[in-house]
Amino acid sequence: MVAKNSITCNSYNDIKSSNETKVPSIFGFPPVAVADKKSSVFASDFAIPIIDFACVLQDAVSRESVVEKIKDAAENWGFFQVINHGVPLSVLEEIKNGVVRFHDEDPEVKKSYHSRDFAKTFIYHNNFELYSSSAGDWRDSFACYMAPDLPNPEELPLACRDAMIGYSKHVMNLGDLLFELLSEALGLSSETLKRMDCLKGLLMLCHYYPPCPQPDLTLGTSRHSDNTFITILLQDNIGGLQVLHQDCWVDVSPLAGALVINIGDFLQLITNDKFKSVEHRVLANKAGPRISVASFFSSSMKPNSTVYGPIKELLSEENPPKYRDFTIPEYTKGYIEKGLDGTSHLSNFKI
């Protein structure tokens, strides 16, 4: 059995790509986490909001309708799916294929990108929280900063280079629109969140979840909220993503061509709890591999001196600030050190 502190890139992948019939102990979650997983109520009468962006740019009435739906979803769910969002289906398929191509590479090729230095442009890792959490999640990932500056193409693996660059350009365009609509949903000028540099950084995190021999004993991704302003997620048709809503784990059912949008911790903080960053997780499963691509609007660990706090226009005597000011690198450092332990890092910034 492999000890957590001796895990290497190769040994970790060997465990998950072998013909193991049991989940090694390093990936086995404590009884409390397993019990939570088994006893959860899966609400069949709940469904993540689906918002159609087809006419959002065509007329004011359609835009107002979309803004109202986004406001309701951001306040009550923290999650919604968008359709007719403008990203071509061919681009969505190509980035998923690019993730598969990279993970099908020779182990020595992948090993050359393996790192836990989150300041690097492109890194391949197993779990960023592997050494801070009680168990490893059943997934492999690679991450790359795609904004504010596109990386030098030579820094990206050939297997996914063009797919990442092409997809990120569409994601930035969609993010621009989303921040306008979210600003309007707050009753503010459409440029408010963009002026606050919420669109400044983009970290693309691509996940590969291998088939799991005992999915009831582990998780693909532990329960957590995102340290982002918003996250745009592309998922394949395997399923497994769940959102905690009214104490129920609700499936985010795959919808062909859709993108999942969720509110991150930073947006909850600067909106003074008006918009909600909610916990979510990914179940392990025997099907697969499962592919997802999360695009985080955050500068993460990159240098960023911008100080954020609750937006002053949203505050009043009846709604005083609930959080202290922070910088994104400060928040992210604590978030990574804490790991995905099922608790919100937001609580550490409350006044």
TrEMBL record:
GO molecular function: dioxygenase activity; metal ion binding
Cofactor names: Fe cation
Gene3D superfamilies: B-lactam Antibiotic, Isopenicillin N Synthase, Chain
Keyword entries, A-Z: Iron, Metal-binding, Oxidoreductase
Pfam families assigned: 2OG-FeII_Oxy, DIOX_N
SUPFAM superfamilies recorded: Clavaminate synthase-like
PROSITE patterns membership: FE2OG_OXY
Residue span(s) of domain Fe2OG dioxygenase: 200-299
Classification via InterPro entries: DIOX_N, IPNS-like_FE2OG_OXY, IPNS-like_sf, Oxoglu/Fe-dep_dioxygenase_dom
Top-rank taxon, per record: Eukaryota
PANTHER family in UniProt: 1-AMINOCYCLOPROPANE-1-CARBOXYLATE OXIDASE HOMOLOG 10-RELATED (PTHR10209:SF473), OXIDOREDUCTASE, 2OG-FE II OXYGENASE FAMILY PROTEIN (PTHR10209)
Annotated family: Belongs to the iron/ascorbate-dependent oxidoreductase family.
Name of the molecule in the record: 1-aminocyclopropane-1-carboxylate oxidase-like protein 7
